[in-house]
Amino acid sequence: MAIITSPVLNAIRTGFRKNFEDGKTRGMPMYNAVATIVPSSTKSNTYGWLGQWPGFREWIGERQLKSLKEHGYTITNKAFESTVAVDRDDIEDDNLGVYSPMMDEMGYASSVFPDELIFPLLGAGFTSTCYDGQYFFDTDHPVNAEVDGSGADTSFSNAIIDAGYAGDAWYLLDTSRSLKPLIFQERKGMQFVAMDNPNDEQVFMNKVFRYGVDCRCNVGYGFWQMAIGVKKELTPATLWEAINMFRSFKADGGRPLGLGKNKLTLVVPSSLHEQATKINEREQIDDGGVTVSNELKGKFTVLNPDYLQA
Fold it and tell me: What is the C-alpha separation between 195 and 211, in angstroms, rounded?
């Protein structure tokens, strides 16, 4: 029987922390491929700059500063935690082996947790608003004829929808820029915490030592122009339709955004993973019953996230 002393608790804490860190290395998160990671230092962040696409004009006379609309899109941080309770009897009986894999799994879960928050945004994008007040995937995003927003609006669509399609939605993202289509806002990163003071009330009342991790963060929508939501059969023709849609996007004032040329990320559910892989990797594909060269080979990075929701 082990006597619970400070050196014993320190050794347990060190071991559990190592298990946690080892578990983190086993995670393969995908969120940073599709989301801008924004540090946060307050309770919430307001993204008034969304809608601005920096560009250049001829410098004639006094420099002009753009008078841009304040969109007021705000993301409020939330607190998240995961805790493992270790029975005091297990410490006294040297029965800690069962907890090591639990700490390892907690480390793994913490590394992929941003994926749990980020990828459901895509499925919700057909019914959730972004900075311009429209659904993230919508058929009438307003783009103004003037840089300062003082002109007439023209509607642009970033949704391709076939009313007769009964399959799962999929998404084509332009991830070629520093700013990505989604936002992961981080107030406090994952921190391993040990509540292992022998005089702690939980130890006295419930004879448990607590080890866990907590963070503060949240997610939201960035530029709709960098994402196209598709509810239509995944075919080369539909992919070209999405690519050409990217190529049509303009900033306020009519300047082309230059999207859809490279670093295209194809995000698909498991039901479409095989089809997406075939389109992206095969030298030849079937086109209406005729075998033709695949001009889309290698054009995409295919992602099949665990947490993508319909």
Answer: 6
